[in-house]
């Protein structure tokens, strides 16, 4: 059975999963979920994710939600396909897990808030809260200072190879590159180089192009 992804192209979490499938060169069926119509909060979607959030992945009889859990599943289950996004070395993988946690617990907190205020709100006709932007811009700057130190000594966050630790940043990073927050990344030389590298990945470009072709 083909892999199915239920989601929205406006959702950073959905884009994370779609790009992962592209990195692994896997065939899949994308099933759009209308966020504005409230479809995630209704049946039949709630039978897939009781929390009413996209995306959901179906692979045979397995149903998964939470985008990082999905990408980790894909990376392990289809390890021999496409780009290796994990390491088979336990110590190297431990370091990847560290930076996956940093992304999820520290970077995402600020980046998602800024994406919402500066990108999603304007698309949906809502006003940006400048005070929130100022608060989370400062928080993101603190995180990126740590990234700059790490990337001065390592090509990628998890080590010498591109892994899930880098990959998970792509959806919010792509949004923020079109805002004034880009200056935070540009002003840190190693972070800037890293951003240019991962944003240029063909799999990400292919997944992102789906927005233009919808």
Automatic annotation (TrEMBL):
<dbReference type="InterPro" id="IPR036282">
    <property type="entry name" value="Glutathione-S-Trfase_C_sf"/>
</dbReference>
<dbReference type="InterPro" id="IPR010987">
    <property type="entry name" value="Glutathione-S-Trfase_C-like"/>
</dbReference>
<keyword id="KW-0808">Transferase</keyword>
<dbReference type="InterPro" id="IPR004045">
    <property type="entry name" value="Glutathione_S-Trfase_N"/>
</dbReference>
<dbReference type="Pfam" id="PF02798">
    <property type="entry name" value="GST_N"/>
</dbReference>
<dbReference type="GO" id="GO:0004364">
    <property type="term" value="F:glutathione transferase activity"/>
</dbReference>
<dbReference type="InterPro" id="IPR034347">
    <property type="entry name" value="GST_Phi_C"/>
</dbReference>
<comment type="similarity">
    <text>Belongs to the GST superfamily. Phi family.</text>
</comment>
<dbReference type="Pfam" id="PF00043">
    <property type="entry name" value="GST_C"/>
</dbReference>
<dbReference type="GO" id="GO:0009407">
    <property type="term" value="P:toxin catabolic process"/>
</dbReference>
<dbReference type="InterPro" id="IPR040079">
    <property type="entry name" value="Glutathione_S-Trfase"/>
</dbReference>
<dbReference type="InterPro" id="IPR036249">
    <property type="entry name" value="Thioredoxin-like_sf"/>
</dbReference>
<feature type="domain" description="GST C-terminal">
    <location>
        <begin position="89"/>
        <end position="214"/>
    </location>
</feature>
<feature type="domain" description="GST N-terminal">
    <location>
        <begin position="1"/>
        <end position="82"/>
    </location>
</feature>
<protein>
    <recommendedName>
        <fullName>glutathione transferase</fullName>
        <ecNumber>2.5.1.18</ecNumber>
    </recommendedName>
</protein>
<dbReference type="InterPro" id="IPR004046">
    <property type="entry name" value="GST_C"/>
</dbReference>
